[in-house]
């Protein structure tokens, strides 16, 4: 039999009744009492449906107070944070640390670099064309030397056969 024990004792919860903690049980009883009281009090005057609709906004926050826990915050702490972020949050202002002169200098440097690259590309095309022509000449020489070597080899073989 394996007994699972939470390594973090802060998350350990003592069950009080039917797996509920004391806080959860207390707020569930309060929520049921408030909801039932509102429904029973308003049932005769406005009907069951409207009484339930009016009891829900009262009973649900009471129940959530006992059960809701998100990132260590209770329900009301979470609601408070949401309201602060929605209505009372100050806008984040951005102030540039750059100056117009700095931007102009940076733009000028980029233009210089771009013109240098264009010059290199133009030079690279002519250099590439010259390299291509050099390789073409070398290839022609190699082909001629190979053909010449084959002719000399065939002539040598024929001369050797006829001399024997």
From TrEMBL:
Is Transmembrane given among the entry's keywords?
A: yes
Residues spanning the membrane: 25-43, 50-68, 142-163
Kindly state which keywords UniProt assigns to this record, in alphabetical order. Membrane, Transmembrane, Transmembrane helix
User: What Pfam families does UniProt report for this protein, alphabetically?
Assistant: PrgI
Tell whether Transmembrane helix is among the UniProt keywords: yes
Q: What is this protein's name?
A: PrgI family protein
- Lineage of the organism: Bacteria, Bacillati, Bacillota, Clostridia, Lachnospirales
């Amino acid at each position: 039999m394996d007994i699972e024990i939470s390594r973090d004792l802060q998350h350990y919860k003592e069950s009080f009744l039917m797996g509920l903690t004391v806080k959860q049980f207390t707020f569930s009883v309060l929520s049921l009492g408030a909801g039932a009281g509102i429904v029973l009090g308003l049932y005769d005057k406005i009907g069951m449906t409207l009484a339930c609709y009016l009891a829900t906004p009262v009973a649900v926050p009471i129940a959530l107070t006992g059960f809701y826990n998100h990132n260590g915050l209770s329900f009301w702490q979470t609601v408070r944070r949401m309201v602060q972020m929605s209505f009372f949050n100050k806008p984040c202002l951005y102030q540039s640390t750059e100056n117009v002169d700095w931007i102009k200098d940076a733009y000028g440097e980029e233009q210089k670099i771009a013109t240098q690259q264009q010059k290199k590309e133009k030079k690279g095309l002519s250099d590439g064309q010259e390299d291509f022509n050099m390789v073409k000449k070398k290839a022609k020489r190699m082909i001629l030397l190979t053909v010449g070597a084959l002719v000399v080899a065939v002539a040598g073989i024929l001369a050797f056969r006829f001399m024997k």
